[in-house]
Amino acid sequence: MTRRRTLLAGALGAAALTTFGPAAPATAAGPRRGPLILVGGSLADDNTEIYGEIVRRAGGPAARIGVLTAASIPPSQDPDAGTPDAINSQTNGQYYADLLRSHGAGDAVWIPVDLDRITAADDPAVAALAAGCTGFFFGGGDQFRYVTTLLHGDAHTDTLVLAAIRRRHRAGAVIAGSSAGAQIQQAADMVTGGESYEALRDGAQPGYFDDPNTSGYWPAGGFGLLTSGLIDTHFSAYGRLGRAVRLAEDTGHDRVYGLDPNTALLVTDPGSSDERSRVLGAGGVNLLDLRDGVRWSHLTAGFAYHPATRRVRVPHTLRQLRPGGARTIADSSDVFGDDVATALALELAGSRDGTVVGHTRQQDPRFAVTLAKRPGFTAYTADGHTAAAFCDLAVHIRQV
Q1: Burial call 278-310: b when 16+ CB within 10 Å, e when fewer
Q2: pLDDT per position as a tens digit, 111-160
Q3: Domain map of the chain by residue range?
Q4: Which among 113, 331, 343, 395 has most CB atoms closer than 10 A?
Q5: Alpha-carbon span 168 to 130, nearest angstrom
Q6: What residues have CB less than 8 Å from 44, skipping those under 6 apart?
Q7: CA-CA distances (angstroms) from residue 148 to 141, 201, 268, 335?
Q8: What would the pLDDT profile of 57-66 be if each residue is shown by its tens digit?
Q9: In contact, 182 and 231? CB cutoff 8 Å
Q10: Mean pLDDT calculated for residue range 311-327
């Protein structure tokens, strides 16, 4: 991957997304890798669409889903361990196993690997437990704990447990993950932390940092199961537009999948020329295209995407929006605040305005984010009045 350190205020023009028709029949011979279900975090217990998809693809009543929660703090670091208030890797593992069974899985088992049991990742008995599963669910927390527990240090080689999971995935088993459990599935330059303002001010830094504001990334990446773009989670809720753009710019990537809470990107045939994605859940998947400047698409449930051609398919529940109204949208003074940038973009998409500007609340230095409609921009609506989704909104970030 070619590295580039460029100023974010690049050209606004870029090749626009276009729509595509139904997928062609699969032609590859032999078994295919299983799907990925990547959730942006805060997955609601009653999200039957996403949990149901995980369970269905794992085999439904015949499913045996392995639950991994090594991204959580271990019992030894939980001051409430042993009490009803405990929230650690072991209690979270049991929680998700029970939840998956409640959504129809025939069985779900915790894979007992965490910071208290790092050596268990190379225990043949634990690897055999993983090898007997038809699907896997990775919980949230800190994705670097998955690097620490399931990969071998600087060598970045698989432990026995991860090797077993990878073999099952190659044979068709589904792998799902929420928040850190989604982040860890990507290839090179996995994000390890940081906030949008500090990312723009200081740039993305290779490594893992105790300071949660430092925009860090791990060059070796995570498990490498998704190779078509960077992943960022809690995207709209935590105002991560700036962080995602800066990380992509600094590491030479031209595509980011920004996953909203309680929302999933279902990826079939990952890593192949037939890879396709579909959005599930309550929020959006924010697709950033950085081939020439930055173009932002906010895709909601039912949208499909073909990475090889960068085309989208619009769900039948939506139609193109013809903006109305004369009201001018107010600029924002805290563009990276929680849920601000996406709300601003959707308001712009449904208006007659052509641009809107959001500023950072921090002043030294201050950044301006201009969102602009350019040729190729399209908004979509369900009710005929408000924008529910959009494609190819230009994003221009500059220091002011």
Answers
A1: bbbbbbbbbbbbbeebbbbbbbbbebbbbbeeb
A2: 999 999 999 999 999 999 999 999 999 999 999 999 999 999 999 999 99
A3: 32-313, 320-399
A4: 113
A5: 8
A6: 262, 282
A7: 13, 29, 28, 34
A8: 999 999 999 9
A9: yes
A10: 89
What pLDDT score was predicted for residue 39? 99
In contact, 199 and 243? CB cutoff 8 Å = yes
Other CB atoms within 10 A of residue 194 CB: 24
Contact (Cβ atoms closer than 8 angstroms) between residue 284 and residue 299:
yes
Q: Whose structure tokens read 């081939």?
A: 291
Task: Assess contact for 67 and 111: CB atoms under 8 A.
Answer: yes
Extract the tokens encoding 273: 């020329």
The neighbour count for residue 146, using CB atoms within 10 Å, is: 27
Residue 13 pLDDT: 37
| Joined tokens for residue 346 | 């959707």
Could you tell me the maximum CA-CA distance found in the chain, to the nearest angstrom?
67
C-alpha 19/C-alpha 309 separation (Å) is 10
Taking a C-beta distance cutoff of 8 angstroms, is the pair 152, 190 a contact?
no
Answer whether residue 8 shows pLDDT above 80: no
* Token duo for residue 164: 């077993």
CATH architecture of the domain 32-313 equals 3-Layer(aba) Sandwich (3.40)
